[in-house]
Design goal:
Length: 229
Amino acid sequence: MRLIRSGALPPEVNLALDEALLRSGRETLRLYAWDPPGLSIGFFQRAAGIACPPGFRLVRRPTGGGAIAHTGELTISWIGARRRVEEVYGEMNAIVGRALASFGVRVVPGMGEPEAAPKGLCFDAHTCYDLLAGGRKLFGSAQRRGGGRFLLHGTLPLERNPLSEGAISLSEAAGRTVDRAEAEAAVIRAAEGAWGRKFLAETPSAGEWQMAERLVSERYGNAAWTLRR
């Protein structure tokens, strides 16, 4: 499986690249951050009533779920062959749970069914597909499915996010500072152990970047598309 460690990219580029990778169809695990910070709203979520904080860029994700303030976090993007929704969530949650355990953090599943188009911030509530530590949400994810493939977006806060009061960060749960490089390494080890294979560290192809650039123009960097709902 291909591994892409993108570092920090602008919000519209991150999401456009994820859709480009989904369209290309190659099984990929991508790990990244956001610079500048982004406020992403779910694909089906209404933009009305959602205020974008100063210094953040408002974008619409290709995946569902509620709004997420992306700052001080590790974002996980996974593209694979289509299978049952709950299987995808379960597999990634097991990997993230194993990675968190390496920091001495124990997690349990959340409760409740996800809404198709929820209101407000994603980390102010939790569903059966989320992971909780100390009763607070530590990891959440959402999916997009199409063309025989899926895209999963997972969010793991590394430091306290004042815009997500319902969340707990990995650093808070672990009782020490955990930086992105350390968190990425733990996720990679856990994924390789779960899948029984080593990753191939690569970068997106020229064609995937070309597709991402087009999607930035048409969708993710286009305010009319972001605010269409």
